[in-house]
Structure formats: structure tokens, C-alpha cells
Amino acid sequence: MRSKPKIILTNDDGIFSPGLRVLYEAVKDLGEIYIVAPSEPKSAVGLGITLHKPIRVNEVTLWGKTRGFAINGTPSDSIHVAREVVVKDSIDLVLSGVNIGDNTSMQTILSSGTLGAASEASLMGIKSIAFSANVQSGEEFYKEEYSSIIKKTIRVIVSYVLEQGFPKGVDVISVNFPDEIKSGAYVVPAARLRWWEKLEERKDPRGVPYYWLYGEPTEPEPDTDVYVVHVLKGIALTPLVLDMSASSGKAYSQLNTIAKIVQKALEESTI
Amino acid sequence: MRSKPKIILTNDDGIFSPGLRVLYEAVKDLGEIYIVAPSEPKSAVGLGITLHKPIRVNEVTLWGKTRGFAINGTPSDSIHVAREVVVKDSIDLVLSGVNIGDNTSMQTILSSGTLGAASEASLMGIKSIAFSANVQSGEEFYKEEYSSIIKKTIRVIVSYVLEQGFPKGVDVISVNFPDEIKSGAYVVPAARLRWWEKLEERKDPRGVPYYWLYGEPTEPEPDTDVYVVHVLKGIALTPLVLDMSASSGKAYSQLNTIAKIVQKALEESTI
Questions:
Q1: What pLDDT is stored for residue A1 in this prediction?
Q2: Strand A128-133, strand A172-177: pairing
Q3: pLDDT tens across A89-114, in order?
Q4: What angle do CA A254, A260, A262 make, to 5 degrees?
Q5: What CATH class has A6-192+220-245?
Q6: Cys-Cys crosslink for B35: which of A256, B68, B212, B262, Cβ 3.0 to 4.6 Å?
């Protein structure tokens, strides 16, 4: 790692989120820091990128004195703007967050913009760490005691990675903080499901039904990120690999049977 | 499997997409078919769901005679509307597509609405298959020769799964068709990256820069979905597991070292 590593900070709550400020304050002297983030909240956009309209990049002053680049795009767009417009040089690390709301479970990871930006960075060859906290609003980050623990944790993790290198075989580290830290730090895989989605039917004034979608939390499985953050109230460190292809031989042998039948059907057709 | 399995069809190009019609025609007599899909195209939304506005469900007549349910939401919303409003009973299988455009590579899978709906279904306990085709527009599905191969392939795969059961340990099967079928069917993992994203700078009439994001295709890696669809022009069958947690012991041991340092830092703080 270079003596002055180039580090991108981004998020999905928008460049003015207090969560981004916590992240900045935690790492500001650990390298050359560039802040590139959506100008407005862009939650739950996953890895979405902006293809059908032009992207604008506006320099803004954050917290009275820090330079940032606000874009009218998604968290993943921020990574590309950082690479091609702002830094124009190789980037050593991307840090995303601190998200308002935890991003525990595969269900949440797959739809999160915080993880989306981190994943897009990793796919483009830049290792990344996503930070999320189980808070209801950004106000929580103004509580000095809470944010100082978060900052200290972020600083320790980022310093380690810059000095010792990113863990081998890992694409993204996802770090989730509980609403109140009552326990230690645990390395755990992501749970599968966090929310059991339901629909509530209502009637509009004309008597026509409409529906509200809402999620009921599922029972946390032990030894998962959901369990650590919501039951143990500890800090969950989850190493992610951007690969969902099945690896079991059994899956492949069953699929191969299907492929053979498809093959035979194609050969039997006149085409 | 029940004699009349309940099957949901959905997509991300909108309920009036000819790709959905191809899917319907391929499987219409294989079970009790329910069509629930966004009323408008919702590409690249991943697993996004609609939380901040109510969802409307409108019954529509498709292709002159088939009942469908159009919703003002995302592909993932369709799964929940199907479960809770339309079917109100257990669902045996979700089929998503046929998408206009292939969904090869993890980069594309992670942002695709077609795969998003399939993944959300699987997370809610309903196995699913996503179908996508490397076509530029829905017009291609009107070419009889092309769509008959796609329909035959879909029918063979869905029939197999209904009769023999879903492949063990697999959450979602992703099937990608080439633009022209010149080769057979292959079982392959997803490539990692499909598009190297770039930004093109332009100046508006006032001389202020703006940027267009565009992707340049990366070199296809052999033995991946991208290679099969774009180089061999074959049909790619990719078994997916909704799990991105690292499984290597090395990843965990390095993360455990970080967790210990975090732990120590927390204990040393006055809190």
C-alpha cells in the first residue's frame, strides 16, 4: 500500500448524511480521502447505475471545510465518477457508509445501495468495506458516545487493512453496528432472510383496495450477522465474496441432466 | 409436486413485454399459471421493494384472452402480491422473464430485476428460474424460429423441475439465451464482470461538463455464462445459491484477527 493511499468515501443516504461524516472523521488522516456520493438519499438501489440520463458532478463543501463531490446518481455511479472524473488514478480502498439502518442478511445485502457501491467497486478491482448501523435516523450519529465507538472501530479496521492488506479471497467486508453496543466484535456469515414480507390491504375513499408492503422481522438464526447485531448487540464483521454460482457437484450433475435433455430437444427440432 | 402446481410468472420489462408472452406460451398447460408483473418496465432495480407508497393491483387481459395482474411496483413486489393477494396459497414455482437482454455475470445478476424477483421468491421459500435472452428489443421475440427454440427450452426445463424436483442446494436457476442459437446447452458458473464502466465527458451549451456512463464489454472468460452466450452462442444454465459469505478458513482467520483488535480497542476505551 502506498504511504498515502487513495481512499474513496461514499454512501447511499446522500452526501449530507451524518453517517458519512462519522466515516470521514474516523479515517480522515489515514490517506488521501475523496468523498463522492449521491446528492440525495438513494437507498435500496443495490448496484443500479444511471444509463439513461447524464450525470452531473458538483463540488460541495461539507461540514464547513471538507471538499466533496455530489452526483445526481446512484451509489454505484459514485464509484465510476470517483475513478474516471475525480481521482483519475488507481484507488486503494472504497469505504461505504455509515448507513442509517443495518444491512444484515443476504436479503438486505442484495438490495442495499451501501453494499451495492462496495460491490461495484470490488467488481472493478477496488477492495471495499461497507459500514452500517442499526439506527432509525441520522440523529443517532450525533450522540457522542455512540459515534466515538463507531469511529474507533472503523479506524481500527481500516488501519489494519491498509497496513496488512485486505483479507485474502474476500471482496467486500460488511460491518454492522448494533443500536447500542453491549457486546464485542464477531466474525459471522450473513443470515439468509431478515424480513418476512407481508401486504396490508386498505380501501381508498372510493372503496378500491390498495396495499402497503411491510416486513416482519424473522427469528434470528444464531451465528449470523442478524443474531450478532440484533440479539447479542455486538459488532458483526462479515466477509463477502461476489460469487453466487453453486459450487456443489450435486447441483451441477442435476443441471447437467437438464442440459442434456435440452440438447436432445434442440437436436430433435427441425432447426 | 401437486398435479396442478401453482406457478407464478413475472418479469422486469413490464406485463406487456413480448418476453413474458413467450414464457407464458411455453408453460401455460404445465400448471395453474398466475401472471403478476410490474405495469411498466422496471429494469436494473435488483431486489428493490416498494415501501414508501401504496401498491395497486389491476387485473388486465393479456394477448386478447389471458388474465394477468399488473402492479405499480417492482419485480420483487410482484412476488409478494402473488403470495398474499393473488394466490393466497402455497406457490410451487416462480418463473421470471424472458428478459430483453441477457443477465450474464455477477455484475449483471446483482442489479437485474429479473433475477431480483427470482431471488426474492427463493428467499421467501419458493424456488425460481430466471430466463433472459441477448436481444436488443422485444421485437426479436416475434421471430417464430427464435422464440420456438426458447419456448421449447423453457418447457423442457420447467417440466423437468416439476417432475423431478428442483436441483438440490440450488436457490435460483438462471438461464441465458444467445442472440442466435448456434450451439448447445451448457451448465456454467456466472462470470464476475461483464462491463468495464467508463464515463464520457461532454459540455452543455453553457460549457458546464456532464457525463454519460457506458460499459465496454470485458473479455469473456472461458467456462462462464458470458462465454457461452456471447462466444459459443449456446444456452447457459447457471445454478445460483443466495449466499455470498466467504467460506474459506483463511478469510475467517484474518477477519478474526481484525475482530480481536477491535475488541481490544473497545475494552481500552473508557466506555
A1: 61
A2: parallel
A3: 999 999 999 999 999 999 999 999 99
A4: 105
A5: alpha beta
A6: B68
